[in-house]
Design goal:
Rossmann fold
């Protein structure tokens, strides 16, 4: 059965995930290091992990499986989810795939190297209404595909 895993600490689309997952009756895990208060719903489980750079990522990667969906901005976590047979989606609606993962990881590493060298890279653009709309569309399509 399909389950949803959300890297929830800084996820701007938690409410949208819960609404779509609830409509489909899917178990959803909000994984964070604390501070989130999900609604009282038997299909929503809050998983609080120890504080640490990769604690939430490790928990998700250890539990996600084929036909599951992960919502994360974290590129290495998305790669781990794809290796487990799960689908992975960014909060802005962009899908992680086996085809784009190599370039996505390379770009991430390049930007990290530039920042470490003192180059100003500008950071991500602000989250927009269009991002939220694109996420809702992509998430619904991903859920429909996982349920087949």
């Amino acid at each position: 059965m399909t389950e949803i895993y959300v890297d929830a600490d800084a996820c701007p689309v938690k409410d949208e995930v819960l609404r779509v997952a609830g409509r489909h009756g899917l178990k959803t895990y909000l994984v964070c290091d604390g501070g989130i208060r999900p609604p009282a719903d038997p299909l929503v489980q809050l998983v609080v992990v120890a504080q640490g750079a990769d604690a939430a990522d490790d928990w998700i990667a250890d539990h996600v499986g084929p036909s599951d969906v992960a919502v994360t901005q974290d590129i290495p976590l998305a790669a781990r989810c794809l290796k487990m047979g799960a689908a992975a989606l960014r909060p802005n609606g962009r899908t992680f795939t086996e085809d784009n993962m190599g370039m996505t990881l390379a770009t991430r590493n390049l930007m990290t190297d530039l920042r470490d060298a003192g180059q100003m890279t500008g950071g991500p653009r602000p989250f927009s209404k269009e991002d939220r709309s694109r996420f809702l569309n992509a998430f619904e399509v991903m859920i429909q595909a996982a349920l087949k």
